[in-house]
């Protein structure tokens, strides 16, 4: 498998120039867009990393997975899905359009509006420090921390998300007794955690293994939360690129504007990618290329008839 990963990274490298690092959060604009790394953590204990897999970067929207999983554990299915839907939008991740034009709750927890609602459910239930401990365990990475520079940079360019949050409050999806600003801070703190491709592969492995740490046998997330998270990753995890990505790659995945992609080959492995040059939809250009190559060469597509032959 190492050969395939090396070939995938070599191929991906030829595409990094087609994308650009995110600049709407100025701190992210300082990152070198030519970096690329992929880590694979398998259930059988095999761990392979190629390229820039130890470089710390901003988790950004991939944190939406963790926020949702923990909210499902703490607040429960009914409470969470009373306030957020399960449908893909086909719109950009930070769009306000459907929120304003329809009577429905935010379409899903993977877009900003949905994640801010989920954050509002959680912010009053759990401290950020407890969240951090949970995240370190889920990612098998004790060194995950809040990147304060990214946090302050995002908080000083928060107008669009603040508009979303107050619109949500006006429509009753953030309750009047919940502090909107507090929910926003919680959401941005989650987005500002610094991870590596290896941390994402660790989280992917836990999700691939039904929420159980394969080395210790300890259950970290319930089966139900893991099932829901993986389903929404498949249908909504790559924003308005989710449909094409499902056809081409066929692996439940979640991207972030820090350049990360977390992918879960169910029952088999977690994959973590870092490639900060993004396409117009906010997904890592080289990361998508690496995943499409791996999916094809290793038969990882969910509906590949040769899957499970690794
Ligand atoms: O709220 C935002 O815009 C960012 N903190 C997260 C966006 C993001 O990662 C979208 N991903 N592709």
Automatic annotation (TrEMBL):
GO terms for biological process: glutamate biosynthetic process; L-glutamine catabolic process. It catalyses: L-glutamine + H2O = L-glutamate + NH4(+). One of its GO terms (molecular function) is glutaminase activity. Its EC number is 3.5.1.2. InterPro entries: Beta-lactam/transpept-like (IPR012338), Glutaminase (IPR015868). It comes from the Bacteria. Keywords: Acetylation, Hydrolase. NCBIfam families: Gln_ase. HAMAP family: Glutaminase. Homotetramer. This is Glutaminase. It comes from Clostridium fessum. The lineage of its organism: Bacteria, Bacillati, Bacillota, Clostridia, Eubacteriales.
């Amino acid at each position: 498998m190492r050969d395939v990963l090396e070939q995938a990274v070599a191929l991906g490298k030829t595409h990094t120039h087609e994308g650009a690092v995110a600049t709407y959060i100025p701190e992210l604009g300082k990152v070198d867009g030519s970096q690329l790394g992929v880590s694979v953590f398998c259930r059988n204990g095999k761990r392979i990393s190629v390229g820039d897999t130890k470089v710390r970067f901003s988790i950004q929207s991939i944190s939406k997975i963790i926020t949702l999983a923990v909210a499902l554990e703490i607040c429960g299915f009914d409470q969470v899905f009373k306030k957020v839907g399960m449908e893909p939008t086909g719109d950009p991740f930070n769009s306000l359009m459907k929120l304003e034009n329809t009577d429905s709750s935010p379409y899903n927890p993977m877009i900003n509006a949905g994640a801010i609602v989920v954050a509002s459910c959680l912010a009053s239930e759990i401290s950020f420090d407890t969240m951090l401990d949970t995240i370190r365990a889920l990612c098998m990475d004790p060194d995950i921390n809040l990147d304060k520079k990214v946090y302050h940079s995002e908080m000083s360019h928060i107008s669009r998300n603040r508009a979303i949050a107050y619109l949500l409050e006006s429509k009753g999806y953030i309750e009047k007794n919940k502090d909107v600003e507090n929910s926003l801070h919680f959401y941005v703190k989650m987005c500002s955690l610094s991870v590596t491709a290896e941390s994402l592969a660790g989280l992917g492995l836990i999700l691939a293994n039904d929420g159980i740490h394969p080395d210790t046998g300890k259950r970290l997330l319930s089966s139900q939360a893991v099932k829901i998270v993986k389903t929404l990753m498949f249908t909504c995890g790559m924003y308005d690129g989710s449909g094409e990505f499902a056809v081409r790659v066929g692996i439940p995945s979640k991207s972030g504007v820090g350049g990360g992609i977390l992918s879960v080959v169910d029952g088999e492995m977690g994959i973590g990618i870092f490639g900060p040059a993004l396409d117009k939809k906010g997904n890592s250009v080289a990361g998508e290329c690496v995943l499409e190559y791996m999916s094809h060469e290793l038969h990882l597509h969910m509906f590949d008839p040769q899957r499970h032959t690794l």
